[in-house]
Write a structure and sequence with these properties.
single chain; 138 residues; alpha+beta; two-stranded antiparallel sheet; 34% helix
Length: 138
């Protein structure tokens, strides 16, 4: 169902962190930044384009607002995505694996499965699997 306040989700390329990417000369930009520049105007130096809706793919101009890097950090923390000290594992804002996934990876490594294979299965890098194997990642 479409409502008048639905997000406009970017359907093009996505970055590693789930933001839309868009080439806007002279460089790549987040699709939300490009949307701001195209629909609203320039992004002043030192400012970031933030999402009211907390949807990284959203490019709807009225879901976006300008703020400083500090504003962005405070907004992220208020929305429960803080990446500060003490957060690890699935509690980290950019975690790609759940605690259950890590436990399964550890067991499968112990059972002799290769790190490269497990990286492909879980959609992560072989180096992350290596960190898990060496106990450097929770």
């Amino acid at each position: 169902m479409n409502t008048s306040n639905d997000c406009w989700e970017w359907t093009g390329c996505l970055s590693d962190t789930g933001y839309g990417t868009f080439y806007l000369a002279p460089s790549n930009r987040g699709s939300h930044q490009a949307a701001w520049m195209l629909f609203v105007g320039p992004i002043p130096d030192g400012m970031c384009v933030l999402h009211r809706c907390d949807n990284r793919k959203c490019v709807r101009p009225d879901h976006l607002f300008l703020g400083t890097k500090r504003d962005n950090s405070l907004d992220m923390a208020a929305k429960g995505r803080h990446k500060g000290p003490g957060l690890a594992g699935e509690d980290h804002g950019e975690a790609k694996l759940s605690n259950a996934d890590v436990a399964e990876i550890k067991q499968r490594l112990a059972d002799g499965e290769s790190g490269k294979y497990l990286a492909d299965v879980f959609g992560v890098s072989p180096s992350l699997i290596s960190l898990i194997k060496r106990g450097k990642h929770r």
